[in-house]
Structures are given as C-alpha cells and as structure tokens.
Amino acid sequence: MRTGSVSGGRVSGGMAAFVLAIGLGGCAFSDDVTGTVAPAGPSPLAARAAPPAPRAAPAPSTPTASSHPDMQPAALRAAEANFSRCIASLEPKARQAGVSAAGFRRLTTGLTPDMSIMKKLETQPEFSRTPGQYVEMLVSETRIQKGRQAMAENAAVFQAVERTYGVDPYVVAAIWGIETNYGGARGSYPVIQATATLACVGRRQAYFRDEFVAALRIVDRGDIPESHLRGSWAGAFGLTQFMPTAFQRDAIDFDGDGHRNVVDSVADAMGSTANKLKRGGWKPGMSWGYEVAVPRRFDYLLADKSIRKPLREWQALGIARVSGQGFPNGEATAYLLLPSGANGPAFLMTDNFKAILSYNPADAYALAIGHLADRIRGGGPFVQPWPEDTRMLSRAERSELQQRLARRGFDPGPADGTMGQQTRVAVREFQVSVGMLPDGHATGDVLDRLRN
To answer: For 280-312, b where at least 16 C-beta lie within 10 A, e where not — what string?
Structure first.
C-alpha cells in the first residue's frame, strides 16, 4: 500500500550487548517482552541513595513449567516431536491468507522449533523499578541527543510523516528510540522460526498461528527478506517492533519502493508507526498530556482513568500546569494520572496519551514515550520529583495484596498479581476505610496496613 513518497533512510545495527525487558513492547502480544532497549546512558537515579531494603516477600508466584497442561515436560516433548506435522497442517490456513504454495514449501522445509523460547514464554518478569526509575532510565540524556540526531538525519521523513498523518513526529521518534534505541537493539530471533515454534508448542498456539502465517506472508510477498526478518523471541521485529499481524494491518510503503519494509527503511518504519498511532485515535495539534500540580485536600477519588473531564473543569478544581501556562484547549477532555501515587508527579492525560497506549498499554511506557518526545523537542525534565522511598511490590506480594483485600470484603478481581482497574478501585476503597490518601496506588505501605 502506497500512501506517500519520501526518500527512505536506511539504518543498520546489531543486537545490543545488554537487552532490557521493559514490559509490553511495541505491537507485541500481552506476554511478550519486546522492548529491546539498549542502555542509553546512566540513569539520573543511579547516583541516589538506595531506598530502604524491603521486608522479605513470600515465595514468588512465577508460573513453572507445570502451570499449564501444554507447558508440562511431556507435552513439550510431544509437541516438539510433532512439530513438522503441525507446520504442515497449517498450509491450508497459510494458503487462504495469500501465501503461495511454493512460498510455504520454501519457508517451512527443514524448519525446526527453538525450544529455548518456552522458558521465555513461561517466565513472568518481575518489575522492581518504580515508575520514576523506569521513566528516568529510558529518557536519558544520551537517548535525547540520539533522537535529535536521528530526526535531523531523517528530516524529510519526519516532515512527511507529520504532513501525511497529523501525528507528532517527536512521538514517532521517541517510539523508535525506546523500542530499539534507534535501530541498535532490534532482537536476533528469526521471526519465522520463533512464531512457528510458538504456533505448534506451548500454551499460546492458537494466537501464534496467525502470527506465523502473517510472517510467512511478509516474506512470500517480498516485503522483507527472510534473512532480515529478525526480532524478539515472540516475533516482534523492525525499527519500532511490529508483530506480524500488526504489520499486516498497519505497515505502509512510505518510501514508495513497492515494499513495506519496517526493518531496513526508516521511512517505512516511521510512516507505519504514525499510521498505527493515527488508527489508535491520535488527534492532530494536541499534546499527549500535561504535568500538573494538585491542590491540597484534593479528592483523590477523581484520579481515575474512567473519570474524564474538560481541562477547564480540572482547572476549576484547582489543578494547574506546573509550567504556569494555561491549557491551550479548555474543552479537550483528560483524566488525572498519578503514576507514583499522591506523593509523586501528577499528569492530565489527553486522548493522545490513549493513542500511545494503543502501541503499548503500560502507563509508564507511554509516559516515557511522551516525555522523551518533549525532551527531544527541547523541553525540560519533569518539575515534580519522583518519590524515592516507594517500595514496589513483587508479583507474589501483589497477589497477596489482592487476596487480603478480598478477605476484607473488597473486590480486587482475581489474585493474579496484575494491578488493573478493578484492583486499583479496591485499593482506593481500602485506603478510604483506614484513613489513607485514596490514590489507588498499591505500595508496600498499603500491603503493610492490610497485613496489620
């Protein structure tokens, strides 16, 4: 699909020596850790005093190989032995999706599973960094400078992206920087082998059969050479990390060469990323959000994603931009986000923050993208300090917190260790009941009160 024509820049880069798992990277599926971010300079938090050591936590509830029937050793061995037959059985599905018979044979003959991927599939990562540490780690001075350089070197591409899609080009550049460190850390797994493995082995076969077929189609139709189609263990690839089905849906041929190549063409990768953001609801001419100051005695029950108000109404409640400037469009709606609770920075988030979340549904990730975009543009750091004494909960502790909330009569949802909206509401209700600030932030202090 051709939607614009610009001279596409070409970049290359190998896998970084250090790969950091940052959650739901790029367009990956919900278990993937695809944000292959190489360190881009020391974090400003590195030199600060470490927070007090947390108390001993219960044994982690990380799933083992026996947590799912398809992940048991015997099932894995059987699936590995049946791999060739499983792949052959997917030919009708691939042919229906447009993969040629010759292409299917060429790309699957001799294909073997990479069983090392199963350990990654079943391991649930623990995130020990606070939102502040996460954001400051990603929005480093080195990454800011590299972003400015990358945009200068590809100025025509970014101008065309903004003109064509109405998306802030600095946000597109920030996604490039955080997803692959501007191409330096894209992942080294052959995407066809990785998705084939997951399509026939393990607990997510139904999901990955579509990804495998999409990967075959990408190579068969000539968009990206098979030797260049490398990425994360779960199949996300390219300068801004697309899953194969997301590529099929959102990728565009922005450099006009007849191929949608988000691996080798900066133009195609940036255009495709902008296209995805636009499909996610990006509105031209609007910021992703504003850092704000919350007045004393504020009703923190209003800090909820489900509560959206025009900016003028938030202003009437005493919320003001920390810059001292007014809101450019008082009728635009936003919700109040407190990523570190009432003691940390506060933000009013617009629909464009939701568009960034469509790329990766993690608040800290989207906040880092928006902040990096502003810093590349020339903006300064956040004004309000991040709290340094926050104790993050392990997955086991988060599950324990949910169980204790339920025993107290609150409804946090399943005790899965995931801090979703239902759990945050339950935390707020508990905080109200014991006289804590009801910011819905699940910290060590909240768990300690529940234990006592």
So the answer is: bebeeebbbbbbbbbeeebebeebbeeebbebe
Contact 283, 352 (CB under 8 A): yes
Within the chain, how many helices (H) and strands (E) appear?
Answer: 19, 7
Burial class (CB in 10 A: 0-12, 13-18, 19+), 407: exposed
CB neighbour list of residue 152: distance below 8 Å, 6 or more residues apart: none
State pLDDT tens for residues 259-318.
999 999 999 999 999 999 999 999 999 999 999 999 988 998 899 899 999 999 999 999
| The predicted structure's pLDDT at residue 251 | 98
d(CA 4, CA 218): 20
User: What's the pLDDT at 126?
Assistant: 60
Model pLDDT, residue 67: 64
* Cβ atoms of 38 and 181 closer than 8 Å: yes
Those residues of the chain that have pLDDT short of 50 are: 1-26, 28-66
pLDDT for the residue 132: 92
Note whether 335 and 377 are within 8 A (CB). Answer: no
What architecture is the 395-451 domain classified under in CATH? Orthogonal Bundle (1.10)
Region(s) of the chain under CATH 1.10.101: 395-451
Q: How, if at all, do strands 333-337 and 230-231 pair?
A: unpaired
User: What is the rounded CA–CA span in Å between residue 415 and residue 116?
Assistant: 29
